[in-house]
Structures are given as C-alpha cells and as structure tokens.
Design brief:
Rossmann fold, nine-stranded mixed β-sheet, 487 residues, globular
C-alpha cells in the first residue's frame, strides 16, 4: 500500500511527546514490511534540521488559498530515519511555523488548519495519490473534511483517511472562521452532526471533524479507547465516539527496540539481556556515580517524563519522600511547561541537593534517560489518565519494574499478578489516584526487593520477556487500512 502520514510531529526532527515516536516507529515498521510510506510535516524553524538527510527544495510555488488571498509555500524533501519526509514552509507574514515553538501560540488552530489545506494542495498538485492518508490528533483533523468536501471533487475521491487520537484532552476548539480561512463555508459545518462542539456550540471542534469525516478512527490502547467512549475522560466527545463505534477501535502503541534495547544501548556502561540480567547492577553503579548517589544496598526508584497533573505529579513528589523515609533511593528526570510546577521541583532540587539518596534533574537528557532505564530497579508512572504510555514499555525492556496506576495503556501492558488470560506479573499496579494508592504499590515492590530477590528477579524477567515492539501494532494498522479501503 501507498501510505501518507500527515502529522505535526515526527521523531527525532520535531518531537514534543509520544506522537513523534509513534509516527517514526510505525512509519519505519510499515516501510520495512514493503509498504510505501512518506510523512508530511510543518517546516518549523525550531526543528532539529540536523536530523534530516539530504534536505532539499522539492517545490517553490505551491499557492495555498487563505481567505480571499493565496499564500506561497515551499516544499522541502529529506530523509528522517530512512523515511521520506516533506516539509511545508509558508512564505507569509503570519510566519505560521517560524515562532520558535511547536505549539502554544494563540493562533494554533489557524496555523494547523492552513497546514492541512497546504498538505492536501501539495498532494493534489504533485499528483500524489496514496491509498491511505493517516492523520494524527487535532492538528490534522481537517484533512478528512477537506478531502471529503473539496479534494474528492478534484480527482482524489478514492483516498481513505485513518485518524489516530493520541490524547483526546486536546481537541482543537476554534472559531468557525478558521474554516472560512481555508475555503470552507463555516455555516455548513456548525452543526451537531459535523464540527460543532457539543459543549460550546458557538465553536468548532477540529478533532471531532476528524472523527466524523474519517473512514476509520482509533486511539493508542484498547483500554483508553473504552475509557474515552464510556467515561468523562472523553472530554465531551463520548457521544460522537459511540455514534461512530463501528469504525472505532484501540491499537496499542509499540516502541523502537533499535533505540531502546539494553543488549545494544550505547549510552549504558554494560549491555545485558535476560540471560545476563545480573550485569544490570553495573548500570546501577554507573548511574549512581554520574548523579553522585550513595552506593548502598537499597532499591533505586525512578521517575522519567513530563511533570504535569496528568502524569500524577503530586504522586511523583510523594514517591520521592516515601523513598527517602523507607530506606530507598530516588531519581527524577523531567521538566514541566507549568511555571509553578517547575519552580516547585527546582526548590526541591536545592532543598535535597546534599541528600546522598536522591537526585532531581529538572530537564530532559536523552543519554541520562537511557542510564536511568538501565540503572533503576523500579519506575513510577502514576498517571491520572494515560492513552498508552511509553515509559512503562521502555522500562520493562530494561528489566526496570514499573509501578503504575491502572488506567489506559498502563492497564493494557502492566499486570500485578496472574490473571485469567494468563498474563504473568511484570510490575505493580494500583487503582486509586491517591497517596494511599501509590504507597500500597510501593510497599509491595520494595518489600519484595528486600525480602525475596528471586521473586523480584522473576518479575524483572517477565517484564523483559514482553514484546511491545511495533510488530503487532503494525499488523493491526495494516488491517485498519485495508478495511478502510474495502468499505
């Protein structure tokens, strides 16, 4: 099949979160299976251009409608992780993607609406006719709308759209005038069965548009698919997901085992696998040396990732003090866009600076992340909600036992004890989003570490034995594409 992905992110060239890793990992797995894959992205001024091989101009005169005018765009082509990528650069006074940031501008809805129109205009003018356009999150929600109501009439009627929801909390709520900007009459779409937001009827919802108009919709884990359809975690889109249930499902994300693999990781002191799991201890020593933590016989608990309320930031803080009060060590690697949260953790960092049993790194450092996954004994992921989660998948590959809250993709991948479907224990799971909830899981994990090292090692090996590569998800996406083309 010929597949075009349209996305606002792709690792490592433009990465904010897990979306970037999915586009990169899934794209390469599909290509390795013999499918033709290309990705269309914005050309941000802040992207990692050094990660692109052979970046060159593909087209200089793509004229894209903008209200009653047209904006000239340049299209660049290059290779990112063996994938062909096209980058759209508008030559406009609005400087849509020359802001020094990926997201967070007041006109984000306008920026990405224009990107969607430009992506389709490029495919139309360049005679690119894929079997499937795979779109991601609200930033590309208008692709299926434009294709259905505009470009299908221009010879692109046989192209199907598959739409993936990575985080339904962010939906692209916008003024209806955004549609007028890209050539659609907003009055036709400000309807409950189209783009009108259910909670704020004076606005349009770009993610809702993607769901309504796409040929299939999925999200990034089966449990999250159920949660956002049947609980208030759908943030107002529950009704439309129920209505579109026949074309909706959850497909669990994978991770890239070329990048995240302790057997060949170049960032860690000693490579190891299941048969050489005792060598993991050398990486624990290396991590302590780098962070100047005491070399004591204590379990080392870690937290890696973004610090925000969704990720259970107060429970991460609670874990820190629980560890210090219960003969454990703690390491944090993370940052927060929230000024108040960031300042609080910087305060903690200075307050605990001389403590030999903890280290807080308020930043993101890729090499340190690899060292933490290889060196820690346990990792906490106490999320309020979690569409899929990559932290627990990576940690399991490294034999670092995850302690997670039972939600979304965490529920689909981490199992606290033998279950009726034969899943073996590969971590510790708690239900309640409370201090008591996470303390119960921490107590079980640390007690086992101290009292029964053989049993704890079995959990480590069970975790390392799990296959959360892109192999199985790719099969599901291929089936999704084929079903869309047959419908």
């Amino acid at each position: 099949m010929n597949i075009i992905m349209v996305s606002s992110e792709c690792a490592p060239v433009s990465k904010v979160g897990g979306l970037a890793d999915v586009v990169d990992g899934l794209g390469r797995e599909l290509q390795n299976r013999g499918h033709t894959v290309a990705i269309i992205l914005p050309k941000y001024d802040c992207m990692e251009a050094g990660e692109i091989i052979g970046l060159e101009v593909e087209m200089t005169d793509l004229w894209v409608p903008y209200f009653t005018e047209v904006i000239r765009c340049s299209i660049y082509k290059g290779i990112v992780h063996d994938l062909k990528c096209y980058f759209i650069e508008p030559q406009s006074e609005q400087k849509f993607f020359n802001r020094g940031v990926y997201y967070g501008a007041a006109d984000d809805a306008e920026r990405f609406a224009f990107f969607d129109r430009a992506a389709l205009e490029f495919m139309y003018k360049a005679n690119i006719r894929p079997d499937v356009i795979h779109c991601h999150d609200w930033q590309t929600g208008l692709i299926s709308v434009l294709l259905s109501d505009m470009y299908a009439k221009l010879g692109m009627q046989n192209i199907k759209v598959c739409y993936t929801l990575h985080n339904i909390k962010h939906q692209g709520i916008a003024s209806p005038k955004v549609l007028d900007m890209i050539g659609l009459n907003h009055k036709e779409y400000l309807r409950k069965d189209r783009l009108q937001d259910d909670s704020r009827p004076e606005y349009i919802n770009l993610m809702k548009g993607g769901i309504v108009y796409s040929d299939s919709t999925n999200t990034v884990s089966p449990q999250y698919a159920w949660e956002i359809k049947n609980t208030d975690e759908g943030y107002g889109l529950e009704r439309i997901l129920i209505e579109k249930d026949d074309k909706y499902q959850g497909i669990l994300n994978g991770i890239d085992y070329d990048t995240w693999n302790p057997e060949k990781d170049t960032f860690i002191r000693k490579n190891y696998g299941i048969s050489t799991i005792s060598d993991k201890e050398q990486n624990k020593q290396a991590l302590r040396e780098r962070l100047m933590i005491a070399q004591d016989n204590k379990p080392l608990i870690a937290a890696v990732g973004r610090l925000d309320p969704q990720k259970g930031v107060h429970l991460i803080k609670h874990t820190l003090f629980y560890a210090l009060e219960n003969n454990c060590q703690f390491v944090l690697l993370g940052s927060s866009p929230d000024k108040e949260i960031s300042e609080y953790f910087w305060h903690l960092k200075y307050y605990l600076n001389d403590n030999p049993n903890c280290h807080l790194e308020i930043d993101y450092d890729d090499s340190l992340a690899h060292m933490i996954y290889a060196g820690a004994d346990m990792i906490v992921v106490p999320s309020l909600f979690e569409p899929c989660g990559l932290t627990q998948l990576i940690s399991m590959k490294y034999g670092t036992v995850p302690i997670v809250r039972k939600t979304g993709g965490l529920s689909d991948t981490v199992f606290d004890a033998n279950s009726i479907d034969g899943k073996r224990q590969n971590g510790f799971v708690f239900n309640d989003f409370t201090y008591a909830g996470i303390e119960g899981a921490l107590a079980k994990a640390t007690d086992l570490w101290y009292k029964d090292s053989a049993a704890f090692k079995t959990i480590m090996i069970n975790a390392m034995s799990c296959d959360y590569s892109w192999n199985h998800p790719a099969e599901s996406y291929i089936k999704l594409y084929r079903n869309a083309n047959e419908s």
